[in-house]
Design brief:
Layout: H1 2-9, E1 17-20, E2 41-48, H2 57-76, E3 81-83, E4 87-90, E5 93-103, E6 106-114, H3 131-135, H4 141-162, H5 164-174, E7 179-187, E8 190-199, E9 205-208, E10 214-217, E11 221-224
Helix pairs in contact: 2-4, 2-5, 4-5
């Protein structure tokens, strides 16, 4: 990610990708560590120069989630769920994560996909999975990268040409978390709970609390609530 940011600031072409066989300091949102076993996952940062406003960055993240899910489906025949804003899941376990930042007029997208891991450290084994675990066979990192970059081009082009609405619609259709899901949201001021109520026009998550209050979630860690919705 740091190398991609340097290249972005130096004016590199859109679509420039920086890959790592291993990360010793991989991280996601809120600086959380990302387990990056050597040679077993796809760890890549992509520089994108898109004709969108900075306010569109949340929807860029959603478009990238769609691209990653489509690539996984194409290469591994595994169906993914999307958890707002940046998690790609198989069932309830995380298989990929996305981190987007603006640098030098470019979007730098860090993407980590668990591909050929057969096991995970004990502390994350209950919440992480890989394409190999899900499909029962190993997969080519090179092929997954090629397909993913193509899908990124498709979904970001859609955003640039047609605006936010098609991306918001596709993400809502692909995600079990966008509407009608009881979740807990970890925020800077504490945790709140409610039922998801769709996305607003900027790509932020709407949450209906039990007291009827409708809250716009600008940032936060979304997880299934411990108790189910009646």
């Amino acid at each position: 990610m740091h190398e991609a940011v340097r290249l972005a600031n130096d004016g590199c072409d859109s679509g420039t990708a920086v890959l790592a066989e291993e990360q010793t300091a991989g991280h996601g949102r809120f600086g959380r560590p990302w387990h990056s076993a050597r040679g077993e996952g796809l760890y890549v940062s992509v520089v994108l120069r898109l004709d969108v406003a900075p306010a569109d960055l949340p929807v860029v993240t959603l478009a990238l989630g769609l691209a990653v899910a489509d690539a996984i489906s194409s290469v591994a025949s595994v169906t993914c769920d999307l958890r707002w804003p940046n998690d790609v899941l198989v069932g309830e376990k995380k298989v990929a994560g996305i981190l987007t930042e603006l640098h030098g007029g470019a979007v730098v997208a860090g993407i980590g996909i668990n591909v050929n891991q057969t096991a995970f450290p004990e502390e994350i084994a209950a919440i992480a999975t890989s394409l190999r675990i899900c499909s029962g066979q190993p997969h080519s990192l090179e092929r997954l990268l090629d397909v993913m970059l193509s899908k990124i081009g498709e979904h970001t082009s859609l955003l640039c040409s047609d605006g936010r609405e098609p991306v918001l619609r596709l993400f809502s259709e692909a995600s079990s978390y966008v509407c009608g899901r009881r979740v807990a949201v970890e925020m800077a001021g504490g945790e709140i709970e409610g039922v998801t109520d769709g996305l607003d026009s900027s790509g932020f998550l709407l949450l209906r609390r039990d007291n009827g209050e409708r809250v716009t979630i600008l940032a936060g860690g979304v997880r299934p609530a411990k108790r189910s919705c009646c």
